[in-house]
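C-alpha cells as discussed.
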C-alpha cells in the first residue's frame, strides 16, 4: 500500500486533527509519522479509500509520499 502525506487546514484544532486521523484509520489507514511544524501526518492507505480522506472537512491536501531532491 502506498504512503500519503495528509495536510490539514491551518485553522484545524487539535481535536479536528485527531478526528482526521481517526477517519483515516477507520478507512483502513495506518498512521505513520506525525509532523509537529505543520498540521500533517503520514498514512499508509489503500488506493480505493483515498477519496474519502480527501473529502474530509478538515483536510487541505493529500499527496503521495515520495523522495524530494534538490539540485
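Sequence:
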Amino acid at each position: 500500500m502506498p504512503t500519503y502525506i495528509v495536510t490539514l487546514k491551518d485553522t484545524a484544532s487539535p481535536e479536528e486533527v485527531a478526528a482526521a486521523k481517526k477517519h483515516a484509520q477507520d478507512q483502513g489507514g495506518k498512521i505513520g509519522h506525525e509532523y509537529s511544524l505543520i498540521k500533517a501526518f503520514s498514512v499508509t492507505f489503500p488506493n480505493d479509500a483515498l477519496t474519502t480522506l480527501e473529502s474530509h472537512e478538515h483536510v487541505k491536501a493529500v499527496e503521495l509520499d515520495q523522495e524530494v531532491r534538490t539540485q
